[in-house]
Amino acid sequence: MTTNQNLMLYAKFSGFRLVVRANRFGCDTDLLRKLHERLLEGLEAAAGRIRTIMALERSILAGDDEYAAYRLEGETEIFGRFTINLLDELDIDLDTHENRVNGGDWSSALTADNTGVDIDYPELSALNDDELGSLAPIIKDITRETGIAVSASRVSYIRCPAS
Fold it and tell me: Cβ distance 17 to 44 under 8 Å?
């Protein structure tokens, strides 16, 4: 991205932070307040990444850091995968049949009894627009205008009935 694109993206993140902060005053549940807070944190983190990228671009132009180009490449790659998680994050390791929620401890998805072995991972269930309330259109606008994915999902432990 060019410096102008980064500056515009930074301005959009700043604008969305103001919109989310103002929208937070209408929250009537703890869940909605938590979602707003997490979105504000995510937007600040995204703006921080853009500030870092712009600083590295300036460093390259000034020629005062011989490793700035490598660092810029890494920061740009990280930013390209950036996602704002509002609720739960689920990691699954298919090789070890383990999972973890929100960066916690790994737990096994294997269960065994006299009928055999079952592998049952939890799933992510996206919040619907009713659960997101007035935040739903804001999230859609953020993704459309900035390209940053916003995930609003919760982990559900749906166990399959034994056969």
Answer: yes
